[in-house]
Design brief:
Elements (H helix, E strand, L loop, with lengths): L1 E3 L13 E3 L3 E8 L13 H18 L7 E8 L2 H7 L1 H11 L5 E6 L10 E9 L3
Parallel strand pairs: 4-5
Antiparallel strand pairs: 1-2, 3-6, 4-6
Helix pairs in contact: 1-3
């Protein structure tokens, strides 16, 4: 995996502009803050963000991949103000699931998600090395 960054651009914080990777590609469907029984967890934006990220990692592991294999992520949120206000809580949730690995990312504010109680949905693409 190789990070691609235009040399004359400032270094991004919390994401990268592009990643080149070779291997088997895993495309993860959008993950929300479901518990192990398929029920959206109670809690604030940070709690749902943390659980959605943890669910991404669970799916990755089921595909014999790791958080460091994620090359692209799109995060959909229903409340951009809550996202902006979450600050260090988001950083802590990120590090708990993804460590210090930052893929190419986009964050999109949306009017709603299919799951009415969901505040965040995360989809990802991972590339794992071939055995």
């Amino acid at each position: 995996m190789r990070v691609i960054q235009p040399t004359h651009w400032p270094k991004p914080k919390g994401y990268v502009n592009a990643i080149a990777a070779q291997g088997e590609t895993l495309y993860l469907a959008g993950q929300v803050a479901f518990d192990d029984h398929g029920v959206i967890i109670d809690g604030d934006f940070v709690a749902q963000f943390a659980r959605a990220l943890a669910n991404v990692v669970t799916v990755l592991r089921a595909g014999d991949a790791a958080p460091t294999d994620v090359v692209r992520m799109t995060i959909y949120v229903t409340d951009l103000a809550a996202y902006r206000a979450a600050g260090s809580g988001l950083r802590d949730a990120w590090r708990a699931s993804m460590g210090r690995h930052y893929p190419a990312m986009a964050l999109v504010g949306v009017a709603g998600l299919v799951e009415p109680r969901a505040m965040v949905e995360i989809e990802a693409t991972a590339v794992r090395s071939l055995p």
